[in-house]
Amino acid sequence: MSEAHEPRRTWALLLEYDGTGISGWQRQSTPERPGPVSFQALLEAAAAHLARGAHVPVTAAGRTDAGVHAAGQVAMLTLPDRYRADQLREALNFHLRPYPFVVLHAAPAPTGWNPRFSARARAYEYRILNRRPRPAMERRVWHVERKLDLDAMREGASHLLGHHDFTSFRAASCQAKSPVRTLDRLEVSREGELVVLRVEARSFLHHQVRNMAGTLVLVGEGKWRPAQVARALEARTRAAAGPTAPPDGLTLIRVEYDPDPFTPIPAPTVAG
User: Of 114, 147, 195, 224, which residue is most buried, by most CB within 10 angstroms?
Assistant: First the structure.
């Protein structure tokens, strides 16, 4: 059977990567014009090895920026149907070496499923190393030396929960048609020397999480009062909010689906 007529299968992939030193998710190069290393380009190159050199387009749940990490990015690709899920995972991981990028799971994609448009929720963490000495071992943090007031940060964060126009917290380059989003969760906690922001919504604007993190750090440092977060939100202009936090501390934790392609379907019960 020729490759053109070979049966094909669409796969859902659960991905993990360290974004340090990588240009982000989105491919920025072509065979004619090589560009910086991106995770999309790396995965497409790995998949081409399994498709006899043919280009294999990859779609993801979201385009993480340069320096941003993922513990639960989700992507989709279509390949000739000659692999089991475990074989596909191992083959892709072999070709992704030596980059800090791995396929955690592979599963057949449900009919009509799309990693971006089928997503019901996305969860991020933003990690801040809150101590005087700079980090020597942990790179996936924003180092903030000044002691942060978590109670003040939590009060400031409460103004951002719910359904709002987040124009003040979107990047100038954001291409979303609407700045309105519903923020379902924004929790601030301390874990030893780490201050962790846990954020959930169906979708986010470009730089929204990093802009919220930068604003809440101003509150935690005592440079802003918590009520100023509400006024920044109401202003609906990027200049009213705080700075964009660096990408180092941001990790895409998970993307939620119903049905979840990575959850095995229970076997039917056979009546005795």
Answer: 195
Length of the chain counted residue by residue = 272
Q: Measured between alpha carbons, how far is 193 from 216 in angstroms, rounded to an integer?
A: 17
Residues serving a catalytic function are 65
Per-residue model confidence as pLDDT tens digits over 172-231 = 999 999 999 999 999 999 999 999 999 999 999 999 999 999 999 999 999 999 999 999
The alpha-carbon radius of gyration of the chain (Å, integer) is 21
- Asked if 46 and 58 count as a contact pair (C-beta separation under 8 A), the reply is no
Which DSSP string corresponds to 88-142? Answer: HHHHHHHHHTTSSEEEEEEEEPPTT--TTTT--EEEEEEEEEESSSPPSS--SSE
72 neighbors 252 (Cβ within 8 angstroms): yes
- The answer to whether the CB of 90 falls within 8 A of the CB of 35 is no
Cβ(102)–Cβ(91) below 8 Å? no
In degrees and rounded to multiples of 5, residue 89 shows phi and psi of -55, -50
How does strand 142-144 pair with strand 121-130?
A: parallel
d(CA 248, CA 267): 42
Whether the upstream peptide bond of residue 98 has omega within 30° of 0, thus cis, is yes
CA angle centred on 164, ends 221 and 114, rounded to 5°: 105
pTM of the shown model: 0.92
Q: How many CB atoms lie within 10 A of CB 35?
A: 11
Two structure tokens written together for 145: 């030396």
